[in-house]
């Protein structure tokens, strides 16, 4: 399937950014209770981070349809390790093998930025995501002390 990655146009597609994050939150926790608090300041943060080196925000397109979003950065608390904040596809495009293409873009961008590893945090309740990450080579690191039922995973790039 032919997909394209384009930098997020916040002015045009901010509503979609929030909708994608809301669905990702629901997939992670089985509810959207608490989502509104988690999104406070998101637009300002997104606008600021897109101006900073090391931040990556992409929308994923198939033909003329916006089908997903990636958010990641080339730094974390671990030296040489990037951090993936969001890998999201709309439901109709899940399970079609696109996750591999999304992760390849992330790998390429982070390797080009000097990273040798990437990490992310995933909910234990998001079984679909967990299966995909484990199949893709992500390895369990430790529980997230700030996130209830959340764990960190890492992959070599």
From TrEMBL:
Keywords: Acyltransferase, Transferase. Residues 3-157 form the N-acetyltransferase domain. Coiled coil: none annotated. The keyword Transferase applies. The keyword Acyltransferase applies. It comes from the Bacteria. GO terms for molecular function: acyltransferase activity, transferring groups other than amino-acyl groups. InterPro entries: Acyl_CoA_acyltransferase (IPR016181), GNAT_dom (IPR000182), YpeA/RimI_acetyltransf (IPR050680). Pfam families: Acetyltransf_1. This is Histone acetyltransferase. It comes from Marinomonas profundimaris.
């Amino acid at each position: 399937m032919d997909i394209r990655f384009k930098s997020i146009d916040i002015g045009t597609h901010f509503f979609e950014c929030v909708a994608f994050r809301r669905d990702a939150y629901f997939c992670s926790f089985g509810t959207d209770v608490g989502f509104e608090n988690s999104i406070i300041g998101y637009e300002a943060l997104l606008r600021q981070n897109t101006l900073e080196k090391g931040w990556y925000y992409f929308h994923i397109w198939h033909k003329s349809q916006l089908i997903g979003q990636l958010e990641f950065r080339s730094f974390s608390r671990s030296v040489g390790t990037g951090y993936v904040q969001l890998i999201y596809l709309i439901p109709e495009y899940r399970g079609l093998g696109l996750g591999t293409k999304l992760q390849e873009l992330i790998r390429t961008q982070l390797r080009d930025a000097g990273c040798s590893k990437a990490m992310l945090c995933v909910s234990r309740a998001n079984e679909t995501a967990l299966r995909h990450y484990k199949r893709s080579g992500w390895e369990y690191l430790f529980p997230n002390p700030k996130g209830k039922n959340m764990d960190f995973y890492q992959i070599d790039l």
